[in-house]
């Protein structure tokens, strides 16, 4: 497929030509040319009339299969452009949906993509019906008025059916999530701009080989893997990547997937450090906007500056400093910035930062466990070592163990016949930090 791209820059829209061309290539298009214009939106054609004439000439000369706008087109603009160009015209979000259709593998992902596509089609069909009544067009995709109206009814029926199926999937995921919490897992979600290296980071943390490619939107299906941080059991979930100005209809369609971020104990916001600072800042803002829309900014947020193996150490340090300042300016609380290379599995900074954050989680607390029966001590110690972090042990008439424990595991401890008391001042947590030498997966 061959395409001509169009980008209209304005004060209201921050668009990147490089990102737009990467989107086109990710969708499988050969980019014949990209037409650019600086101006505010024209109500009829999106671009100005003079630039439209230039575009018509390009279409006659290059004969593309499609003209793709980086800007969002209204249904009326899409129709007016088609009427002038006589070639299929789509915008940035239809292009993203085409990529999604290629990447979706699981039943859930396919349903989410279909729902987003149908939601996008509704205003187009309504515009077609309006124009039919004005005698301006034969119908939607060549259909007459009656067929177009019936198609609109079918879209709405299908959307309702998909939403019910996704609700069932959501309920099943919630059951799995609760079971994971009950057995002592900490839930970590990877979030961030598309192609920042989230899947590669998941592979590095969990020692896995989930598909990771240098292209946009490789991951549409949620992937959850286990890894150990010291003796703490952690589940890390990869989610669909963000993009600047992610429209509400895509957020809604992928809500059950993005909910993994909302339900997580910690969110890792992954950024590509090898990009220029201006791009990093733009993508950080875009990611924060999505997290704000999801109401996930109340979670402990760790910024992961990935791909530091591609830049100088001083550059990485400076970008980490600038990200800290930017987060403060945006009023976003972050736990810190970890500089890593997921590809090279250089994750020390991330491990250390996660260790500190985990101990501050509400579901993780410092407790004194009193074991009165000496025969139970070995079993209790083994259990605590597998689900928590032992700080100290005092032997005597009774054994007193101070430990950090995931609160979901307290019921299991109680069944072992011990007494449990939360410590107000656990003290000397630094001793724990000194013992944090080895992490599985490093």
TrEMBL record:
A GO cellular component annotation in the UniProt record: cytoplasm
Keywords for the protein's UniProt record, in alphabetical order: Cytoplasm, GTP-binding, Magnesium, Metal-binding, Nucleotide-binding
Cofactors named for this entry: Mg(2+)
Gene Ontology terms, MF aspect: GTP binding; GTPase activity; metal ion binding; ribosome binding
Superkingdom as given in the UniProt entry: Archaea
Binding-site list for GTP: 192-199, 217-221, 238-241, 306-309, 341-343
Location in or out of the cell: Cytoplasm
Chain ranges of the Hflx-type G domain: 186-362
Binding-site positions, Mg(2+): 199, 219
Function: GTPase that associates with the 50S ribosomal subunit and may have a role during protein synthesis or ribosome biogenesis.
Recorded family membership: Belongs to the TRAFAC class OBG-HflX-like GTPase superfamily. HflX GTPase family.
Oligomeric form and interacting partners: Monomer. Associates with the 50S ribosomal subunit.
Name of the protein described by the UniProt record: GTPase HflX
Organism expressing this protein natively: Thermococcus nautili
Lineage of origin: Archaea, Methanobacteriati, Methanobacteriota, Thermococci, Thermococcales
Primary gene name: hflX
């Amino acid at each position: 497929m061959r395409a001509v791209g169009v980008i209209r820059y304005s004060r209201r829209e921050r668009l990147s030509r490089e990102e737009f061309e990467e989107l086109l290539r990710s969708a499988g298009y050969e980019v014949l040319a990209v037409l650019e214009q600086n101006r505010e939106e024209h109500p009829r054609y999106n671009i100005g009339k003079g630039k439209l004439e230039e575009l018509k000439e390009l279409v006659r000369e290059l004969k593309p299969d499609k003209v793709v706008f980086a800007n969002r087109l209204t249904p009326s603009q899409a129709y007016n452009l088609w009427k002038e160009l006589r070639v299929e015209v789509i915008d940035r979000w239809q292009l993203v949906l085409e990529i999604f259709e290629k990447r979706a593998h699981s039943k859930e992902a396919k349903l989410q993509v279909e729902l987003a596509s149908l939601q996008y089609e509704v205003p187009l069909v309504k515009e077609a019906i309006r124009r039919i009544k004005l005698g301006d067009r034969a119908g939607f995709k060549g259909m007459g008025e009656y067929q177009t109206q019936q198609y609109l009814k079918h879209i709405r029926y299908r959307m309702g059916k998909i939403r019910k199926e996704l609700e069932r999937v959501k309920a099943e995921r919630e059951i799995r999530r609760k079971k994971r919490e009950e057995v002592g897992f900490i839930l970590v979600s990877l979030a961030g701009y598309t192609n920042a290296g989230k899947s590669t980071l998941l592979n590095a943390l969990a020692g896995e080989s989930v598909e990771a490619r240098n292209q946009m939107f490789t991951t549409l299906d949620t992937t959850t893997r286990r890894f150990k941080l010291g003796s703490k059991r952690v589940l890390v979930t990869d989610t669909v990547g963000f993009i600047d100005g992610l429209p509400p209809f895509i957020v809604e369609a992928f809500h059950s997937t993005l909910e993994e971020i909302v339900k997580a104990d910690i969110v890792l916001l992954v950024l590509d450090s090898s990009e220029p600072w201006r791009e990093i800042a733009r993508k950080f803002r875009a990611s924060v906007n999505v997290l704000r829309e999801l109401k996930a900014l109340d979670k402990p947020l760790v910024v992961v500056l990935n791909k530091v193996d591609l830049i100088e150490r001083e550059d990485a340090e400076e970008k980490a400093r600038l990200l800290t300042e930017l987060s403060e300016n945006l009023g976003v609380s972050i736990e810190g910035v970890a500089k890593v290379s997921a590809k090279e599995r250089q994750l020390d900074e991330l491990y250390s930062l996660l260790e500190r954050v985990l101990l501050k989680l509400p579901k993780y607390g410092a407790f004194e466990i009193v074991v009165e029966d000496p025969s139970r001590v070995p079993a209790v110690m083994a259990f605590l070592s597998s689900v928590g972090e032992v700080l100290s042990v005092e032997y005597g008439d009774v054994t007193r163990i101070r430990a950090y424990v995931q609160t979901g595991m307290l019921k299991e401890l109680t069944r072992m016949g011990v007494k449990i008391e939360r410590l107000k001042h656990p003290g000397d947590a630094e001793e724990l930090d000194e013992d944090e030498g080895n992490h599985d997966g490093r």
